[in-house]
Amino acid sequence: MSVSKDEIKNIAKLAKLNLNEAEINEFTGDMNKILDYMDKLNELDTDNIRPLSNPLETYNVLREDELKRSIDREDALKNAPGRNDEFFRVPKVIKSDKK
Amino acid sequence: MLPYKTHTEKIRLIQKAQLSLIENVEFFLSQISVHKDINAFNFLFDDAIDRANKIEQKIKEGTSGKLAGMVIAVKDLLSVKDKPLTCSSKILRGFEAIYTATSIEKLIDEDAILIGKTNCDEFGMGSTNENSAFGPVLNPLDKLKVPGGSSGGSAAAVAANFCDAAIGTDTGGSIRQPAAFTGTFGIKPTYGRVSRYGLTAYASSFDCVGPIAKNVLDLALILKIISGKDELDSTSSESNEIQFPSQNKKYKIGLPKEYFKEGLTEEVKTGIEITIENLEKTGHEIIDISLPHSDYTIAAYYILATAEASSNLARFDGVRYGLRNEKIRTFDELYNLTKTEGFGKEVKRRIMLGTYVLSSGYYDAYYSKAQKVRRLIKEDFDNAFREVDLIISPTAPSTAYKIGDTVNDPLQMYLGDIYTVSANLTGIPAISVPYQSENSLPIGIQFMASHFNEEILLDIAQQITE
């Protein structure tokens, strides 16, 4: 399977990465090489095989739903690049008509 | 040089007042400073000396924990409260952890002394420790070579006598391969044996926390302490307690024919052959086995690990933590500029790959296919362990790479993980034991065992080291 530059641009958009022209070229080359190698999985017939997502195949690890203290608000906010009192500060999402 | 070989000897010297713990920590700090070019540490902890003072008292009063005074370095992927946590990434510059990882908490509870955070490949992504915002780590045995990765700083710190032992993490070989490249011992425990709480997630169904040490006794001691079920990690397991030292048992050891076909360097081949000869001489039985899907492990691993990585790393959105470009005006810019400016190239490459294999139209062809192959590989190992107790292989196909050798060829770097990724795909434990040949850098001999059988890995490691 070969991946085009346009597909790489689209993947970068999905991954929220801005890539410049040189990086797009480089990643297109890398990805094609890597995916070519990965195509070897198609040699295997896996029709009746169940996917394995966890090596120990544990399911539904349950616990009592008890209220416990976890992280203090000040601690949670301590690494925020922007804050306003007890809130994380982010760019404005809603556009305003006034101005 | 250090006047002791193992932790037990160290404690005895302190008890007899023949070793000052403060001077011991000062010695490590001076070694780190003299050999700054190794670049093993991202941060040093300034409270280490103070802690040494307190713990020395406790040792003398007989009230100290099992790891009292052991000086341990922690990979900068694990949280230690109020200390920096960067994952060797620009995106976490200035971040301070707000809680302590369970595995590290257990070390502290047993009176270990944490000396600092070690350099690593960014978010654990790499096999050479060259992908770090803090710059590459040099191999203390040969400074033109890499120490391996991603726990390169941890392994280098142990090999260079910057500490007694270190904690690393292993998603595809990141404890074992650097241990092999630096002549140290490293063990990747069974998936779930050690809590992942406080470990920055790379690929959650693969990630394991484990020790790197100078001898099997210390390795076993640390592993025992950090093991156990943790309410804060629902994938951690209630498991059997590791009994060690155990009694010199004789084992059936499997030799997979697929592992010795090609790509092995001469040093590695010879080292394995001599080890096998010695194992036979000392009464172990070597049995030829087959792991038929060995050729597919790298492909399956890199599809699944990058898919999980692309999902895990989505959290670095610049809202709650992470760098922020002051020019940001919109939400989209916030996400895009944070990731674009914060992540290094290998991390971006893996996010791209993971996003691709999870994207609609390719999900079945890659992600789902790889999950099925993961089961086939696991069944290979289940079958093998019906016949043998252990599987022997090299840890890596060669000795340490030259710095710069794999930088422009990511696939080449991925292929070097051929012997290590199977243990992560299947969740089984694996150990790397150093083998020193005459005229080359050390190689690693890897043993794998079935789930929760770390005990026999430690036993065989101890036997071949003696």
Radius of gyration of chain B: 21 Å
Note the overall shape of chain A. Answer: flat
Q: What assembly state would you assign to the polypeptide chains in this entry?
A: heterodimer
CATH topology of the domain at 7-226 in chain B: Amidase signature (AS) enzymes
Helix segment tally of chain A: 3
Strand fraction of chain A equals under 5%
Instruction: Give a quick account of the main beta sheet of chain B: strands, pairing sense, barrel closure.
Output: 11 strands, mixed
Summary of the model, kept short:
The complex is a heterodimer of chains A (99) and B (466). Chain A is mainly α and 99 residues long. Chain A is built from three helices and two strands; from the N terminus they run H-H-H-E-E.
Explain this structure.
The complex is a heterodimer of chains A (99) and B (466). Chain A is mostly helical. Chain A has a domain at 5-42: Histone, subunit A. Chain A contains 3 helices and 2 strands, in the order H-H-H-E-E. Chain A has helices spanning 5-14, 21-38, 73-77, and strands at 83-84, 87-88. A two-stranded antiparallel sheet of chain A has the order 1-2. Chain A is flat, with a radius of gyration of 23 Å. Chain A starts with a helix and ends in an 11-residue tail after the last strand. In chain A, 18% of the residues are buried. The model of chain A has no long low-confidence stretch (mean pLDDT 91). Chain B is α/β, with parallel strands linked by helices and 466 residues long. Chain B has a domain at 7-226: Amidase signature (AS) enzymes (Alpha-Beta Complex). In chain B, 38% of the residues lie in helices and 12% in strands. Chain B contains 15 helices and 11 strands. In chain B, strands 1-3-2-4-6-5-10-11-9-7-8 form an 11-stranded mixed β-sheet, with helices on both faces. In chain B, helix 2 runs antiparallel to helix 3 (48-61), helix 7 (216-226) runs antiparallel to helix 15 and helix 9 (297-312) packs across helix 11. Chain B is globular, with a radius of gyration of 21 Å. The two termini of chain B are 22 Å apart.
